[in-house]
Amino acid sequence: MKIKLISLLLALALLAVFPACSAENSEAQSASSQAASSDVSADPSSSEPEEPGFSSELKLSGVGITLPARFAGSKGMLQLSGGVEIAPGLNFSDFKYYAMPQEKYDELISKDRSGTITEEEVAWFMARNIDLLVFFTADGTKSESDVIAAAEQMTLSAKQIKKLGSVGEYTFYGALNPLPELIDFEKEIVFDEGYREEFDALLKILEEDPSVLRFFEPEASSGGAAGSAVSFEATDLDGNLVRSEEIFKEHTLTMVNLWGTYCGPCIGEMPDLERLNQKLQSKNCAIIGIVIDVPSAQNAEMVSAAKEILSATGVTYLNLCVFNGLDSVFPAQFVPTSYFVDSDGRIVGEAAIGARGAEDYETLMNEILETLS
């Protein structure tokens, strides 16, 4: 099934800004550490500013950006975000420009967290959210043709994909300003006074000065392993705040099922999961779902789609929207993927990948329960 890049970019925008999943994003590193991690051929001492105007990196993607001092105090917001594994060995991230002031950005975050943001405000935000550069991080199992094939599945053309650099077994590709080929950019993107000039200046430096980019070997995610602590805040599909410790402490074992509204096998197993959830209550076990393509309870269209599926399959157990750090806590290359968490909020056993019957899940959970007794 084709993935529309515009849909993924919009989803990532909400995942990055509103309470949802975002990649690990660190502050600026020292000039010496930047030089050590970059594969840019230019001499770092002559190309990196002493006082950068913007500097950020994604450790899980192996991508960093440092802009000159003139971009300090920029009119719009800049954000390097993403870290989404779109296929085994292939990671997607992006560098965004928000044509809005910091105060407006903070206001929308606050409203979303309090559940008071309106659909009109979300639309206002989305019309001022533009990708300057999207990245693909490919490990040694992926060739350039694999990257292009994945990009084309996201409706990017092969001509947009450029090799940006390589470190060890990893190769980095990018597409500069991809939206104009996907939407009516001049009509659908709004630049209030002064923002267009800054956006164009940012595009120019990304296109002409490769030293502003740096690449390094991505760090492996420690999330999802047995024994890993799980802690998060999320909202259910109605926008109610849910804290992980309150979920897990009530049950000896909780199965966390990651699923998507587009995923046939996910939907197909839901009636079995509902029956299993009812049956295992006598053993003080529970099931919860996380809908990986519902970035916020404010996304009315996706919430409606998820609720229709839950109603049609008879599911009554708790389902959550994507939360901040989901990719690190419960990494998943495929859905459905299910994790098992004990009452202390720690992952136990191995993740169950792919759809399974109720008997298989019950057997697996009984085996885990024996280890907890």
Short account of what is shown:
The chain is α+β, with helices and mostly antiparallel strands and 373 residues long. The chain folds into two domains: 5-215, no CATH class; 233-372, Glutaredoxin (3-Layer(aba) Sandwich), CATH 3.40.30.10. It has helices at 5-17, 31-37, 44-47, 102-114, 119-126, 144-153, 185-188, 195-208, 244-248, 264-268, 270-279, 300-313, 326-329, 358-372, and strands spanning 54-58, 63-67, 77-87, 90-98, 129-138, 162-167, 170-176, 213-215, 233-235, 241-243, 253-259, 285-291, 319-320, 337-342, 352-353.
> Main β-sheet, in a few words?
5 strands, antiparallel
Shape: globular
Distance from first to last alpha carbon: 44 Å
Query: What is the N-to-C succession of helices and strands?
Result: HHHEEEEHHEHEEHHEEEHEHHEHEHEEH
Mean pLDDT: 82
Unreliable stretches (pLDDT < 50, length at least 5) are 11-49
Give the strand order of the largest sheet, numbering strands 1, 2, ... along the chain: 3-4-5-7-6
Number of domains: 2
Tally of strands: 15
Helix/strand-derived category reads: alpha+beta
Percentage of residues in DSSP E strands = 15-25%
Q: Count every helix, treating DSSP H or I runs of 4 or more residues as helices.
A: 14
Percent range for helical residues?
25-40%
Q: Give me the Rg, rounded.
A: 22 Å
